[in-house]
Amino acid sequence: MTRTTPFHPEDAAMPAAALHPLRDFAEKLGRELRFEDLRSGAWHARLLTAYVRHYEARRAGTSSTVRASETEALIRRASNEAALVGASAAGISTSAAVFTLDTGFVGALVAVPVAGAAMGLDTMLRSLIQARMMCDVASAFGVRIDPDDPWDLLHLHAITSGSEVWEDADRGGAGLVGRMLTEDTEAAERKLGNRLMGESVLRNLLPFASVVTSSVTSWRRTRQLGHAAVEYARYRRAVDDAFSAVRAVDARCLELLIEGAWCLFGTDGVLRAEETVMLAHLLRSSPSAARKRVLERLGEDEAQWVERLHEVPEAARDAFLHALEVLVAVDLSMSNAEWLLLRQAAAALNRPPRRERVQALLKQLRAHGVVLAPWGDLAESRDERMPVSRGAGLGADAHGAPGAL
Q1: With CB atoms counted within 10 Å of each terminal CB, which end of the chain scores lower, N or C?
Q2: Given its phi and psi angles, is residue 173 left (phi above 0), alpha (psi -120 to 50 degrees) or beta?
Q3: What tens digit of pLDDT does each residue of 26-65 get?
Q4: CB neighbour class for 154 (10 Å; exposed up to 12, middle 13-18, buried from 19)
Q5: For residue 144, what are the β-bridge partners?
Q6: What is residue 205's three-state secondary structure?
Q7: Domain interval for residue 91
Q8: CATH number for the domain including 307?
Q9: Rounded to two decimals, what is the model's pTM?
Q10: For the chain, percent helix, then strand, then coil, each to nearest 5?
C-alpha cells in the first residue's frame, strides 16, 4: 500500500457513465481468466489484480475526505451485498437439487453444471465485493492497495485465516515472521483461491438450509475481512508515516526501529495478526542484508535492544521516539508493559517519557484512524530534553567516532 486520496462513502453511488468502464473490466477479465486458473486456484489473484486496476482507473482524479467511523458503513454495505449473493447462489443450488430429484439422471446432467456454475459465480462475486470494500477502506485511511504487490491482499486474508496461524513457539513468533518472508507468493495465492472456492462448495451442499447458512456465512466473513482491512490500513498508515519521518532524518536507524516494533508488539508474549503481517511488511521492504541482520536479532532480550539505542544519532532521536510512541498507540491501547519499555527507550535516547504524548496519539487514532499532527508537533521542546550522551551515533566505535555501516 502507498498513500492516496481518501475515499468518501458518497462516492459509492455509481452513475450511468461508470457502467462503461465496468463493462470494459468484465470483458478484459473474461479474456484473461482461464479455466486452468479455476482449477489451480490462481483465479483469485487474477480477479483481484484486475479489479484493483479498474478501481484505480475509476477513482483517478477524485478527491474527498472520510472519518474513521464511516468505514463501518462501507463494511455494512459490502456484508449485505455478499449475503444477498450467497443466498442467491444457494437458492440456485437448491433448485438444481430439487430438479435432479424430480427428473433423475437426465436432469442431473443439466442441474449439476448449473449448481457448480452458481457456486463459482458466488465465490467470484463475493471476492469482487470484498475487493471493492478493501480498496474503499484502504482509501479511507489515505493508502492504496498496490495491484503489483500481491502481499497487500494476501496479508489482509492472512489476518482472517484463523487464530492457530499466529501461535508460534519459535522465539515468540520470530519463526512465523520468517516463514511469511520466505513463502512462495504464487503458491500462497493458489492456496487462497482453492480455499475460498472450497468454502463456497461446502456452504451450498445442503439444499434449503444452505440458503440461510450461505447468506449468514458470507455476511460474517465479509464483515470479518472488513474489520481486518480497517486494522491493517490503520497500522499501515501510522507505521509507514512514522518510519518515513525517521527515514527522512537518518535511514540508518530503520533496523533498530524494526527491532523496536518487534519488542513493543511482543510485550504481551503473543503477536497479534496485524502485528505479524506488519513486521513481515517492514522486513520485506528492507534490503536483503538488513533483513538478515534484523531476523538474526529478533527474539533477543529487550535490554539488548534498549542498550543499542545509544547508537541513534542525536538528530534522529525525536523522530525515533515518536515512531516508538506510534507503535505503542497503533493498537488503540497502551499496556503497562509497553509503557515500561517505552520509558526505558526514552531514557536510552536521553528524552523524558511523556505519557500525555501517547495519550494524544491514542485519541487521534481512535477518533480519526490516523495521526493528524506531524511528529514534530508532539515532540517536547529542547530545554525539556535530557543531556546528550557522549559518543552517541549509529556505528560509533569505542572512541565515539562514527563508523561505516
Answers
A1: C
A2: left
A3: 777 777 778 788 888 999 998 999 899 888 888 765 555 5
A4: buried
A5: 2
A6: coil
A7: 7-11+17-232
A8: 1.10.3680
A9: 0.80
A10: 75, 0, 25
